[in-house]
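Posting for a labmate who doesn't have an account.
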Amino acid sequence: MGYGCRRMSRWQTWPNIQAPPLPPRRRFEAGGVLTCLARISKGRPLIQCSCPSGFGVPAPKLGWRSDQREGEMPTGSISKSSNEERRKAKGKTANSAVDLQPEGGAGMFVRVCAAVTCVLLAASLMNVSVFPLFDPLFTYARDISVVANAATLIALGLVGTLRPLWLRVALSVRIVVMGTILGSVLLVWSLAWGNAWALTIAACVVAVARGWAMVAVGVAAASCLTSRQIAPCIALAFVAYYLLTVFSWVVPSGIGLVGFLALPMVALALVWREALPVLQEIERGEAPIDTAVTQPSSFLSLGSQLFVCLFLFRVAFGFSLRFGEMEGVPLSDFLVIVPVAIVAVFVLVRRDGAFSADLLTQISVLCVVGGFFIYAALGLEARMAATTLLSAGNTLFDIVAWVVLIAAAARNRRASVAIFAWGRGVSGLGTTLGAAIGVWMGQAFGVDTHLVAAAQGALILVFVGYALIGLHRFSFAETIQGVVPAVDAATATPELQFEDRCREVAQRYGLTARELEVFMMLARGRDRTYIQEQLTVSRNTVKAHVKHIYAKLGIHAHQDLIDLVEQNDGAQRINEEQPTASVGRP
C-alpha cells in the first residue's frame, strides 16, 4: 500500500507497542498516544482508537501504571471489557484487525480524495455541460439516466446484502470499462446524428458505469482510511470540487462531455488496487442478511433510520434544487465554497479530528429552510441570497452523507458495498423524487404564486417536522458506533470445558434447551445456514432464538457472547454489567 509491510507489522498488535516512559499514574488523552506514535513512525500514524472520536464520540483515555510490565495493555476505557481488549490485542478476527489498523497512508489519502473529487466533478459536468445537449434532442433522457444511476446503486446495495456472490467483481469491472467505452462512443454518435433512442441507451449505460465507480471509491475509502481521515478527506474533496467547478462553466461543452465520460474511470483507476481485495472478500463471504441473523449488531438493515433520513432529506433538497430552476435561478453558487472551506478547516485543525455529523445536518436544514423563507419574503430581489443558502444546505448535507456512509461501512467492511451503495442509491432516488415534485408543482400551479408558495410551505413544514420529531432520538454518531465488526469464529476450546461453560451461562440466564443448542453453535462461530440445517428449522425461527438469547444475556454483539464462554468469569462480568437483564423463560 505504499508503506512497508514490515514496518506495518511492527505495530500490528497492542503488545508490540513500546510505550514511552512516563511518570507514575500519569494519564493523558488518546490523542497524545497517537501523536507519540506518529513521531516514532516518522509522521505516519499506523493505529487508531477502536472508538473513533471523529464522529462526536469522546476519545477514550489511556494511561500506564508505574508497575506495568513492558508490552502490557494500557489501562483505561478503550473498550467495554478486558476480554475485548485481549481479543483485539491478539487479533482474533480479521475484521477487528482491519478496523484497528487501516492501511491508508498519505498516498492513499490523496488518491481517495482525488477519486471523490472526480466523482463529484463528473456530476457537475453532467448538469452543466452534458444535459443541455440532451434538451434539443430528447430532454427526458436526462431524467432516465439519473434514475438509471440511482437504480444501479440500489441494485448493488441489494446484491451486496442478499447475494454478494452475484457481484462477480472480475467480470463486472470488465463490463463496466467496456460499457463506458461503448456508451461514450454511442453517446457522441447519437448527439451528432440526432438519435433519441441511442442517446437514452448511451446515457443509461454511462450512468450505470458511473454508479459502479462510485461504489468502488466508497469501498476503498471505507477500507483504507482511518476514522480521523474520513472527514478531512471528504471535506477537502468538496473544496477541490468547487474550485474546479469554476472551469466547468467556461469550458466548451465538448470538453465538458469528455470530462464527464472520463472522470468516473479515472476515479476507478485511482482506488481499484485497494478496492479489489475488499470486493473479492465480500463476493466470497457470507451474505450480510444471513450473518445478521446471528450477529445483528454487525450490519445496518436496509430499513435503518439512517437510510430513511438520507432519503427524506434528499427529497427536500431535490425539491429545493428544482425550486431554483423553476424560477430561473442558478442551481448552485460559487459562494457555497465558503461554508465548505470552513468545514474543511475545522476538521483539519482539530487535534482529535472531530466531525459532528449531527450538528452539520442541523446547519444544513437551517440553510435550506432559510433559503425558502428568504425567497418567499423578498422574492426575486433576494434570489441570489436564497440560492446561496439552498446550495449551501444541499452541499453540507451531501458532505454528511458521504462521511457517514463511509464511516459506517468502515466499521464492518463485509457490508461496505451494501451500506454505501444502498445509501447513495436511496439518496439519489430521493433527489430525483424531490425534483419531480418540484416540476409537477410548477406545471400544476402555473403562474399562481400563492399556490406555489402554499405547496412549498407544506413540504417544508413536513420536512422540519420530521427533523424535529422524527429525528429527536436519532444520532449519526450513535448509528455508526452501533455497527460492530463481524466475528469469523470462536477460538478453539476443549469440548468438555466448552460445554460446561455454555451450560453454566444457560442456567444463569434461564435459557431454554433449544436456546442452549443455538447458544452453543453461536459460541462456536456457526452461521445462520448451519444452525438452520442442524436444527431443521426455518430462518425466522433461528432469528427469533438469537433475538431471545441476546435479550436474556443483555448483550448486543456476537463477540460478547463468545467472551462469555472463553473467560471463566465471563458470566459473572456480564451479570455485573447488566444487572437488569431478563433471566426468565419465554
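Reply:
Got it, the C-alpha cells are right above this. The longest strand covers residues 27-29.
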